[in-house]
């Protein structure tokens, strides 16, 4: 049975091709917005889709907005990575650094949702991608590392920074108390 | 705020965010499709779809290789077990041998006959798989209702360890009726849906068949020796260290068909 699961099913291939044809133009535009070069944008989209291929199981409904957001997240990340060839020096995560922020109890209401989304837009995009893949798509550090082509340690560092940044913004904008 | 609650909050924020963002992306996609402003991308299409197909092929090849290795092990291990004494190769046969059969033979008791049809179906399922333990299958099956009353003797206790497993998967129209051991020879009585019973004798030896009075015949590039005597059709050949001898009262054709299947 395990072997049968290991085989790529025709449905997987069909699903992948469906996703590709449906969203490739959107992804290409998003990559072009960053790279301003169609040839580079094509490379970024190609790279992104090959990463998506490994995470097909994360896609429940190919027609949903969540799927579009997932593909665009991976594509924009691939484009941003191409844009900054020189990799940033992500420092090691100190143990004491982890979760070194506090938030009061807070429940997101519809009333505040839009404002909170704007806050999240103010988080650096490379941090936001990791944050979204972790919390919206419930991906493990390992899966995120594969999808974004970064090390698991980078995932942990970026995730911590994203959470810290968002927490700071939530406090600063008065949504929650520290 | 406890870490779990904080993570729940982040999860809610992230989930709402992608839902909203995703909806706006879908609208943007619709507009792109309507405007049709994105250039054609044959290079990207070839690259993405080609690489995805290549990955699929590699993945399937790896899975097929692993599956083939397991099947090979499944076939080889029972044989190795039988070479080592073979007691582990036929647990069902051993269990059957422990049944209260006073005559030391381990055929099913006659009062089990109403269930024997079911048992036969089970046995056929076993035979569809690689012939890991045909003696066990035969022991499980016992004399079925369709078996003639003068069916040949089943194993004598202790002899089942000497049995040579069937080195091939039986064709669909044949099932093992019983197995017997005579010194170095294992005798399979095969019930056929297309002919009379086939008696196949296997002997583990490199000795060539005694061809005196027999007619050579080429089957699948291998030479077999036959006797078309209507009273006693007979076919024999040597393959992979085993001497095959088979007879069938229906005639030589059934034997040739089986040989073609084996060879």
Question: Could you tell me the number of beta strands of chain A?
Answer: 0
Q: State the end-to-end CA separation of chain B.
A: 75 Å
Low-confidence stretches of chain A: 1-6, 86-98
Share of residues in helices of chain B: 40-55%
Mean pLDDT of chain A: 80
CATH architectural grouping of the largest domain in chain A: Orthogonal Bundle
How many distinct helices of chain B?
A: 6
Shape label of chain A: globular
Oligomer: heterodimer
- Highest CATH level, the class of the largest domain in chain A: Mainly Alpha
What does this structure look like?
The complex is a heterodimer of chains A (178) and B (263). By secondary structure, chain A is mostly helical. Chain A has two domains: 8-88, Rna Polymerase Sigma Factor, Chain: A (Orthogonal Bundle), CATH 1.10.1740; 111-173, Arc Repressor Mutant, subunit A (Orthogonal Bundle), CATH 1.10.10. Chain A is 67% helix and 0% strand. Chain A has helices at 2-6, 10-35, 38-54, 65-83, 110-121, 125-135, 141-148, 152-172. With 263 residues, chain B is of the alpha+beta class. Chain B is built from six helices and seven strands, in the order αααααβββββββα. Chain B has helices spanning 3-35, 42-83, 91-97, 113-128, 134-141, 252-262, and strands at residues 174-182, 185-192, 198-204, 215-219, 222-227, 234-239, 242-248. Chain B has a seven-stranded antiparallel beta sheet with strand order 1-2-3-7-6-5-4. The relative contact order of chain B is 0.07. Classes of the chains: A mainly alpha (178), B alpha+beta (263). The interface between A and B is large, with 53 and 49 residues.
